[in-house]
Structure formats: C-alpha cells, structure tokens
Amino acid sequence: MSSPAGESPSTGGRPITLGLGANLAQFSLLVAVNALVGGMVGQEQTVLPLLAEREFGLTGYTFLFTYVVAFGATKAAANYFAGTWSDRFGRKPVLVVGWLIAVPVPLLLIWAPSWGWVVAANVLLGLNQGLTWSTTVIMKIDLVGPKQRGLAMGLNEAAGYGAVALTSLLAGYLAAHYGLRPAPFLLGLSYAALGLGLSGLLVRETRDHARLEAAKHVGRADGRHDHLHADLSTRQILTHTSFREPALSSASQAGLVNNLNFGLSWGLFPLLFATSGLAVDQIGVLFALYPAVWGIGQLLTGGLSDRWGRKHLITAGMLTQATALAIIAVADTFALWAAAAMLLGAGTAMVYPTLLAVIGDVAHPAWRGRAVGVYRVWRDAGYAVGALMAGIVADLWGLRAAVWLAAALSATSGLVVATRMYETHTRRTANPGRPR
C-alpha cells in the first residue's frame, strides 16, 4: 500500500515514519531501557574482582578472570541470535526474553557460596546483555532511518555506558559502606524488574520501520554496495561482515580490540590500582571515570560522525586508546591514572557509536539486524579475549605487561582501519542530490 513520502500505515493503524523527531517517545523509552541494560553490568565491575580475592580467596589472575570470559563468550553468542531472531520474529520478543534472563543474575551474586555461582551468573548476564543491548541498537536504527544513525548510536551507547559508570560508582560506595554483599547487587535486581516491565508493557515493535526503509532503499552513487543486495543468505552476511567487505570487516576487528580493552580493564584495573594502596571507593572512582567519559563523550561523537564521516574518527579513537593504555601502564598515582582513564574513555567514545553507524550505513535494511548481530559477536568476543589475554600475560609477566600489550593491539587496529576502511557515510561520499 502506498503512502506519503517517509510514511506507511502500520498494522495497528499508526502511521510509520522514519526519523528521530517523529519517533521521539519510543526512541527515548529505548534509551532509558538501554541505560538499565548498562546498569546490569555496572553492578559488578568494581565489586567482583574484590569479591574474588577477599571472599573466595582467588589469587591467580587467569582463574579470577573466568567470570569475564564467561560473560564475553555468552554475550557474543547471544548477539548473533539477537540479530537473527529480531529479523525473523521481531525485535520486541527478543528484548523481553533478554530481560527475563536478567532477573536471576543479582540473586545468584548475592547468594553465591562458591565462585562457580558467580561464573553461572555471568553466563546469564552475557545472554541478557547480548539479547537486550543488540535489540535496542537495532530498534533505534530502525526508528531514525539513514540520516541520523551516528546520533542515534551516540545516544544509545551514552545511555548504556553512562549507566555502567554511575552504577559502578554507586556499587563501590555501597560496598565500601555496607560490605561487598548484598547491597551493590540490589541495584541490579531493581534494574532487571524495571527493564522487564518497561519492555513488556510500553516498548513497541519496530520491524515495520526497517521494512519501510528497505522499500525505499537506493544504493550508493558510486555503486560500491551493489553486491550487498536485499536477498543475501545468512552465510553471506556472516562472511561479508567478518572478512570480505572492507568497511564491515574493518569495523568488526576494531570492535573486537575496543572491547578487548574493556575486558582487560574490567578484570585487571582494580587490581592494578590496588597495588598502590588505593581504597575501594578510590578504585570505584577510577573505574567509573573510563565509562563516564566514554558515555558522555558519545553524545558528541555520534552526531559528529554524521557530519565529519566515520573512518577518521574511528582511526583517531583507536590511537587515542593506545596512548591512554601506555600511560596507565607506567603510572602509579591516582591523579595520573584518573587522567589516563578519561583519555581512554574519550578514545572509546570516538569509536563506539561510529562503528555501529558504519554497520548501519553498509548493511541493507532487509538484513541489518543480522549484520549488527555478527558485528557484535566479534566486538563482544573482545571481552573474553581481553580477559584471557590479561590473565595469562599478568600471570607470566605482571599486570603492567598486559596493559602494554593492549596498547600495542589498539595502535595496530587503528592502522588497519586507516588503510582498509573506506568512508561509509553517504553525505561524505555521494552526490547530495541523489537519494540513498
């Protein structure tokens, strides 16, 4: 059925319109939901490394980081299924299932009699994060259409990682004043209940928005995406996103290295900071600075990528992360670590929403959900890779050696983007008078 430009009637009678302004209420609700998703991670980050040492007596770094590996591996797998299922069954059912899985996580952490319970909780947390975060990303891209992807991803990721920072800070405060359990994890229990209620009762399905965009889709003026047509198989989507398509695959490797840094920081930074005798609440502040600058910075960088383009922002962000990690590796004071943590957050803010915007630029609307899922498989595998790498290197050569290795990998990743990725934002590459 035809409709005015940019609109189509939905099955429920509401007109479907692409754009942030036209979908502001639902978009804002999804921003709030994703903040709750991020808060589920923040409840753990300051507390679990300390819990491992003080209550469970874990001293080997590799064994201590098993909870990060469990989280990263299951989140990576859940991302793939979130993309596939959201294209097949719709976005909202996947979101609701993800929140149902979240409910037992804080309870397991509160009652855990052994470290195995903590690992089990992080398996569930990884499933929750993969299903819910991937789905909110896909839904926001659906709603805004092609013109404001960078801004949309900046707002999405700012909400999620801002909540990681705030909850990490709150959890550190609660742990310092009321003990490591149960107080910090009561935050997560409230987030899970609220997220499930909002998603089940108020969030609306957005798959018809993607169908409307697909019906109006026009390829790039330079013909670069002509081979990325609507009817690619899932195997072809996996291959292009992982290896063959230069922009998609460059984004995938940069995402993996970016989250490798986060996985390393999650398990290793609290222990490194503790070597200088910092108190728990000081460690909480340092750990919160990284995602706080990351989260707030994305409010700026997402929109900037819509104006300036994607490639150079990603390259600069990876090199900035490399510089920050090098400073962390040599520092031994609160002030210098704080400055480096903020620099690391700034570099991550330049990269994080921009990589997701690249996927939205290149992937056809008909299979964009699956492409987002594959990209997030690679990106979130970085949690597990970073934790394993940090644990092994720290056991063999010390905490600082692991940070130096992450710095070298970040610099290499930035150079790969600089040499292999092309500019994907059509406003920067195509005739402005030609529709996409």
The CATH architecture name reads: Up-down Bundle
Helix content: over 70%
Q: What is the overall shape?
A: globular
CATH superfamily name?
Answer: MFS general substrate transporter like domains
Number of strands: 2
> What is the CATH class designation?
Mainly Alpha
Domain tally: 1
Number of helices: 18
Strand order of the largest sheet: 1-2
CATH T-level topology: Growth Hormone, Chain: A
H/E series: EEHHHHHHHHHHHHHHHHHH
Rg, alpha carbons: 21 Å
Structural class: mainly alpha
CA-to-CA gap between the ends?
21 Å
Strand percent estimate = under 5%
Subcellular location: Cell membrane
GO molecular function, one term: transmembrane transporter activity
Transmembrane segments: 20-41, 61-82, 94-111, 117-138, 158-179, 185-203, 256-277, 283-301, 313-331, 337-360, 381-397, 403-422
Organism: Pseudonocardia asaccharolytica DSM 44247 = NBRC 16224
Outline of this structure?
With 436 residues, the chain is mainly α.
Walk me through what this model shows.
With 436 residues, this protein is an all-alpha fold. The chain has one domain: Growth Hormone, Chain: A. It has 18 helices and two strands. The protein has helices at 24-45, 48-54, 61-64, 66-89, 91-102, 104-111, 115-144, 149-178, 183-201, 207-215, 234-244, 246-274, 280-308, 311-330, 334-362, 368-397, 399-420, 426-429; strands at 7-9, 15-17. A two-stranded antiparallel sheet has the order 1-2. β1 (7-9) and β2 (15-17) form a beta hairpin. α1 (24-45) packs antiparallel against α9, α4 (66-89) runs antiparallel to α16 and α12 (246-274) runs antiparallel to α17. The protein is globular. The relative contact order is 0.16. GO terms for molecular function: transmembrane transporter activity. It is found in: Cell membrane. Residues 14-425 form the Major facilitator superfamily (MFS) profile domain. This is MFS transporter. Its main location: membrane.
